[in-house]
Write a structure and sequence with these properties.
It holds the Pfam family Dioxygenase_N. InterPro entries: Catechol_dOase_N, Intradiol_dOase_core, Intradiol_RC_Dioxygenase. This is Catechol dioxygenase N-terminal domain-containing protein. The protein is mostly helical. It is built from 3 helices and no strands. It has a domain at about 30-55. Helices cover about 40% and strands about 0% of the residues. It is extended. The termini are far apart.
Length: about 80
């Protein structure tokens, strides 16, 4: 906060945003954790605290595919197909 020196209005807007994020959370939906991931705070903390000892953090997300199949607009993204019982 010292570096960016927000105005009172900017600080109030930030508090409003954080309040709205908090209100979306519940026992099964942890929006502050998601916000931490989006802002890069989770990765920074893991990296600076020896994350190399465990599973490598992913910046791309758990569903990223290096070789994603090419699809045309409107094609299904369901890799299992639609013929499921």
């Amino acid at each position: 906060m010292r570096d960016i020196e927000p105005t009172i209005q900017e600080w109030e807007a930030a508090i409003g945003f954080l309040t709205a994020v908090g209100q979306k959370g519940d026992d099964t939906r942890q929006e502050f954790v998601r916000l931490s991931d989006i802002l890069g705070a989770s990765l920074l903390v893991e990296t600076s605290n020896g994350a190399e000892e465990g599973t490598e953090s992913t910046v791309l997300g758990p569903f990223h595919m290096t070789e994603s199949p090419r699809r045309e607009r409107g094609d299904s993204i369901d890799l299992l197909g639609t013929d499921r019982p």
